[in-house]
Amino acid sequence: MQDDSARGSSTPIGVAVEDLLGRIARGDRTAFADLYDATASRVLGLIRRVLVDPAQSEEVAQEVFLEVWQSAGRYEPNRGSATTWILTMAHRRAVDRIRSSQAGRDRDLRVGVRDFTAAIDDVAEQAEIRLENDRVRVAMQRLTELQRQAISLAYYEGLTQSEIAERLSIPLGTVKTRLRDGMIRLRDEMGVAS
Known about the structure:
Helices cover 72% and strands 0% of the residues. It is mostly helical. The longest helix has 30 residues, at 82-111. It is flat and about 55 Å long. The two termini are 20 Å apart.
C-alpha cells in the first residue's frame, strides 16, 4: 500500500480543494490528480443520482473534470467552497444532459422517427436486474464487515476515501487497503475476469 508521499505527490493529506484549484489554474497536473482523487467519487455519485445511467454519468463526470481543468482560474472563493463549486458544475452538467436528451426525443417525435416502439420484455429485464442485485448482495455478505462497510460508504453513499477515513476515524491507508481488498474479493466472488 502506498501513501501519498510514496507515490510522489507533493500534496499533503488534507490539503484544501481551494488550494488545489489555485495550483490547477497554474497548470499543475499533480494538483489536478490530487483534486480528482479527492472529489471524483462525490462528483460521480451526484451525477449518477441525477442521470441514473452509469455510462452517461461517467461521460458527464469526465466533462466536469475537463471543465475544472480549463476553468480553475475562474473559481471565486468568496462565492462558496471549491467542492461546492465543482459539485454545482456537476449537477448543472447532469441536468443539461437530461434536457438535451429530452430535446432530442421531442425533436424525433416531431419528425416521426419515434412513432414505432419495439416491444420490450420488461419482465425479463427486471428479472435480470433483480438476479444481478442478488448476486451482488450475496457477494457483499461474503466480505469482511470492515470491507463491506468501506465499500458501502464509497459506492452507495458516494464518500471519498478521505471522508471514509474521517467518518470511521481510521488512517487513509487503512481505507484504501479495505477498499482494494474488498473489490478484489467481490470480483472473485462474482466471477468477473480482471
